[in-house]
Predict the 3D structure of the following.
Amino acid sequence: MPSQSVIVSDYEPFENKFGAVRLKPVRSHFGLLPLLSDVPMIKDLYVKWSTFDEIMPVRCTYRVHDEEGKSHTVQELSIHKTIKRGNDVYIAAIKKKLSPFLNQKPKIFFDSDWGVKRTNALHVVLEYDSTSYSMGEAWACVGSDFNRWIMNITKHFGKPSHLRAWHGHDSGFPHIDVI
C-alpha cells in the first residue's frame, strides 16, 4: 500500500484553523529581537497576513423613539473587510484621511523668478550601524534613541519644531528622517 505524503506548510505553526496568520504565535516564535536570518520568513508571513482577506461583523443596537413616544430597539448587522496595513481598505482609509492635503491646489513655495531661495529647514537622516546593533536591538531602541537625540538638540539649540518618521531599509534596519 503506497504511503501518502502530507504537505505541511512552513507557516502552519503561525496560522489559525482557517489558515490566517496570527500575530501572537509569530511574536512567540521570533520574539522581539529576531535574527537576521529570520527576516525573509517574517516578510513572507507579513505578506501572507496582509493579503489574507478577513471580514468583521458589526452588530449595532439602537434605542429609538417613535412619534408616539414609545421606545424600540433596532439592531443592524453590517459586515466589513478588516483594515490591515497595506491592504486596499487601509489605502482607501489613508487616502480619505489625507484627502484635504492631496486634493488641494499645489502651493508654490519657491519660484525661480523670486531670486535667491532660503529656508530655515534642515533634513536629517539618522541611521543605525549594523555592526554595532542587531536588527532587533535597533528597532527596540529607535524611539528612545530618537528622543535622546532630539533632547540633545534641544539642549544646544532650543526646542525645534520637527516632523519625524522612521521606517526600515531593505536590510531591515531602521532609519529616521527628521525635518
